[in-house]
Each structure stands twice: as C-alpha cells, then as structure tokens.
Amino acid sequence: MTFGRWLCAVALLLSAKGASAHHSFSAVYDDKQTVAVTGVVTQFRFVNPHALMSLDVTDEAGKVVKWTVEFAGRLNLSEVGWSADSIKSGERVTVTGNPAHAIPARMAFRRLVKADGSVLRTGAPERLDAIEEERRERARQRDLKK
Amino acid sequence: MGRLCTFFCTDTGIDRLNALLDDPANDARPFSQLQTEATKYETDRYIRPRLTAAALKTYPLDPADDPGLLRCEPWGLAKQMIAPHQLEIRRRGADRVELHYGEWDAHRTVYMDGRKRLASQPPSRLGYSVGHWEGEALVVETSGVTKGQTQWRSEHSDQLHVVERFTRAASPKGDTLLLTATVTDPWSLKEPLVIKKIWSWSPTSQIAPYDACEPVIAVKKGTSEP
C-alpha cells in the first residue's frame, strides 16, 4: 500500500517520543536542585500542555503552604500508564522534584510516593535504560567483528 | 537517531552522534552526554555558520523570552513543523491534506489542487501550504509566514520559505515517518538549512485537547539549555 493511498484510508498518527518540552525547562526550573515535600492532594489535572497537581503542605509552624507540581503532558504520562485517576484528591503523598527558580512552592515532578508505598514516576529513566541497553548491544556487535 | 531528532536534527548531528557511539572510548559515557555533545557540534558546525549577521545579533534566543512560555502564544511554522509529540496526517476531501499536531493541538491545511497563494492574502503564523506527491513522498511548500522564532533559536523574517518532504520507511521497530525540511529565509539564513525529524507509527495514540496552558509568571534568563 502506498503512502498516498494509506493516507486516503486512515489517519496517520505518529508520535515523536522522548520529549515533554512545550517550553524550556531550564528557564523555569533548577535541575541542579531537588526538593521533597509531603502533603495532601487537593487537585490533580490530567491536562495539556502539562499535568498539574495542587498540594497542601503543613510546615513546622502549622501553616499550610499550597504547592504546585508540574508534570509532563498527557501524552508522555499516558505512554507510561498514567490516567486522570493516577492521583486522587485527598491522598497523602510525598513528592520529589526540581524547584522553580523564581516561583515559591512550585516544582517540576520527578517522583511521587503514596501512603501505601507505591511509587509514580515518569518514563524517562526507563527510556534511557533502553537506549543504554541498545548501546551495550552495539558495543558487543562491534567487539564480535574484531 | 530518534532521540537526537526529538525536535529536529541534521545530517551533521547524526553523523557526529554515530561517530561518538562507534568510538569504544565513549562506551562508559552516558548517552545523554554524547547527545549533548553531538547537538553542540551540530549547532557550531552547521547551524551557526548559516545564520546571517542580522540573525546572529539575537542568536541564540533566550528560552526565557519564548512567547509560548510567557503568554501561551502558539508556535509559528518554524517551531510547529518540528514540534514534539504526535503528528496526524489526514486527507480532507479531494483537494487538501490536514496536518494535526499534538503540540498546541495545531492544524495546518495543505492544498493539493495546485492553487497558488493570492498576493492579497495576509501572512499568518503557520503560513500558506500547497502540496503534491512525488512518488511515495508528500511534498509541502509553505510561504506567507509572519516573522517569528525558530526551533534552532534564531529569529526569522516573513520571507521564510519551507519545503517539507515526508517519506515513510520501515525500521526494525516498525513504520516510521521521516521529514526532511529545507528552510530558506534571506533575512536569517545565508544558505538553505536542511533539518530532519522522525516519528514512529502510533495508531492507538490520540491527540488530547490542549486547553490548559498557563503563562509562567517568573523565569530565569540566561540559562543555556532549551
């Protein structure tokens, strides 16, 4: 079937994997720093361009600080099994991420641990693992040719 | 190639990355480091030398000044055509093809019946596109684009002209779609820029609404990475 006729018949839907970059990461977040907070989820929005979570975090003085956590967009999260129900309002979670340079109580998501110990993360480490495995295979093949 | 070409790549960058990967001295270095090195080589050896003095005055643009980041302003052609995420290509009637992108949920119409852009037609963000088939390749030619920013971090003028060539290819991991785009712009480029991008066939993927963009209220200028 030619490309042209295929187009006539069905939609051609493709994805360029590996990116979540609707905007620059480094202009907003500091990837050299990591922060972790524990709190109660007040909202999780599974939206584009970035999913967002609101979190009430009680500090040592008893004051509630409202944190915002920014995730990748729906496509990237869906590819690793996330849905709108992956995080529910009222859940107590510990979330780790990169803090914003200039916006208080805001971070870019890296890892989330629920009260039952289950962990949510994005797919980036797994993708990099797969690439590194391909590299090891490439090196093996290269050595065999010697 | 796929990861290097997440946004776009060039033959210069691809060749450099392959050379780095083939060198046993780099086996212990993480892929991300090699990718960064290949991208820098591509920028220094291929992109920067093609920019005019006018474009170099503001090159590289600070990612903190991106209108998409600051004002949720959708991308123009020179960013959208190589946006990350999905691309859906669908025939619309006998005379046009629609390109639908996951990023920004953006739509482009490509007229396939040989019509020309009217001189009176004002330029727009995504321009005016006409297309035709060359064997198995879909060729799309676009002009009439308002001045804006490129994915390679330069500005461009309203004289931007792009010829995109989409071809299908089989790979061990399944069907892929390869884009080769030839970009000309007398204001920003001394000679044509040829960039590439690759998508993998993803028939179950769906483009979701792009309706929750929020302008970022505070950014840091001068960061080096996009």
In words, what does this structure look like?
The complex is a heterodimer of chains A (146) and B (226). By secondary structure, chain A is of the alpha+beta class. Chain A is built from three helices and seven strands. Chain A has helices at residues 3-9, 74-79, 124-145; strands at residues 12-16, 35-45, 52-58, 64-70, 92-99, 106-114, 119-121. Chain A is elongated and about 65 Å long. With 226 residues, chain B is of the alpha+beta class. Chain B has two domains: 1-50, no CATH class; 52-200, no CATH class. Chain B has five helices and ten strands. Chain B has helices at residues 11-22, 31-47, 53-56, 67-71, 77-80; strands spanning 85-92, 96-101, 107-111, 128-134, 137-143, 148-149, 155-156, 161-171, 174-184, 193-201. In chain B, the strands form two sheets. An eight-stranded mixed β-sheet of chain B has the order 1-2-3-4-5-8-9-10, with no helix packed on it. The longest helix of chain B is centred in the first third of the chain and has 17 residues, at 31-47. At the A-B interface, helix 1, strand 1 and helix 3 of A face strand 1, strand 8 and strand 10 of B. Strand 1 of chain A pairs antiparallel with strand 10 (193-201) of chain B, so a sheet runs across the interface.
